[in-house]
Amino acid sequence: MNKQTRNLERQVDKLLGAGGRAITLKHLMALDKLRKELATAYEKYADEDGKLTQEEMVKYDRLKKLDKTIESVVKELYKETSAEIRASLRGVARTTADGTISLLEQQTGRKVRGIAKDLDVDKLINTEMAGLKWTERMNKSRADTIWNIQREIKAGLSQGDTYGTMAKRLKKEIDSSAGKAMQIVRTEGHRVKSQAVVESLESVAKRVKMTKTWHSSRDERTRESHLRMHGMTVPFEEDFILPDGTRTEAPGLTGVAEHDINCRCIMTVDIVRE
Question: ∠ CA 94-95-98 to the nearest 5 degrees?
Fold first, then answer.
C-alpha cells in the first residue's frame, strides 16, 4: 500500500476510534446512573449487615419501580449509542468515498470525480449484513441488556448480596453491552468502508479499466482463509473468491458472519495502464 492509502486507512480508523470512545463513555455514564439507583435502594432498605433482600424490595412495588428505571436508563443508552454508531458510519462512508476517488485522480492525473457515482450514504449504512441490519442487532442487544440486568438484580436480591457484589453484577452486564456495541462499530465500519469503495467507483469502472487487490492484516489474529487471500488481484468488476468458494466484491461484504465479523482486511484499487 502506498502512503496515500495508509493515510486514508488512518483517517477511517480515527473516526471509528472516536466513535468507540464515545460509546464507552456513554456506557460508563449509564453504569453510574444505575449504581446510584442501587445505592439509594441499599441506603434505604438494606439490613444492618448491608444486605438487601427481595422480600424487602417487593414491598410497595419497589422492585417494579427499579425495573422501570433500568429499562429507561438502558433505552436511553441505546438511543445515544445508536446515534454515535450512525454518525461514525456516515463519516466512514464519506471519507472513504472521497479519499478513494482522490487516490484514483492522483494515479491517473485526470478528474474522475465527475463520473463517480453519488453515494447514498443513508442507504449504504443501513444495508443488511448476514440477513440483519445493525439497527436490528442493536434492538436485540438492548432487549437482552435490560433483561440480563433485571435478572442479575433479582438473583442478587435472592442471595442477599451486598451493594459491592451487586455493583459488580451491574458492571458485568454493562461491559457486555459495550462489547457488543463496539463489535458492531468495527464490523459495520469495515463493511461500510468496503462498500463505499465499490459503490463510488462502479460508474468509473465502466470507463476506466481497474483492478482491486485484497490485503490481509497478516498477524496472529488473521483468519487462515483471509491470510491466503493476501495479494490476490482481480478485475474491479469481478468477485474475489475465498478458499471455501465464498464470493465477494470486497472484504467484509460476503454476508457470511464467519468471514465478515471482526474482519480487518482491506481492498486497494489500481488503474490498469494501457
Answer: 80
* Interatomic CA distance for residues 160 and 140, integer angstroms: 30
Upper half-sphere CA count for residue 193 (Cβ side, 13 Å): 27
Distance CA 149, CA 132 (A): 25
Separation between Cα atoms, residue 156 and residue 149, nearest integer Å: 10
State the cell numbers at 102. 482522490
Residues counted in the chain: 274
Specify the higher pLDDT residue, 225 or 206. 225
Coil, strand or helix at 129: strand
In order of 47, 84, 99, 177, 192, the CA distances from 9 in angstroms are: 56, 20, 9, 27, 13
Question: What pLDDT is attached to residue 69?
Answer: 97
Q: Cβ(251)–Cβ(186) under 8 Å?
A: no
Q: Amino acid identity, residue 12?
A: V
Q: CA–CA separation, 214 vs 197, rounded Å?
A: 13
pLDDT bucket at 1, cuts 50 / 70 / 90: low
Q: Tens digits of per-residue pLDDT, 38-48?
A: 999 999 999 98
Other C-beta atoms within 10 Å of 187: how many?
20
Cell 438494606 belongs to 46
CB atoms closer than 10 angstroms to residue 64: 11
The string of pLDDT tens digits covering residues 184-197 is 999 999 999 999 99
Q: How many CA atoms within 13 Å lie on the side-chain side of 47?
A: 10
The whole-number pLDDT of residue 236 equals 94
Q: Which helix (H) or strand (E) holds 210?
A: strand 210-215
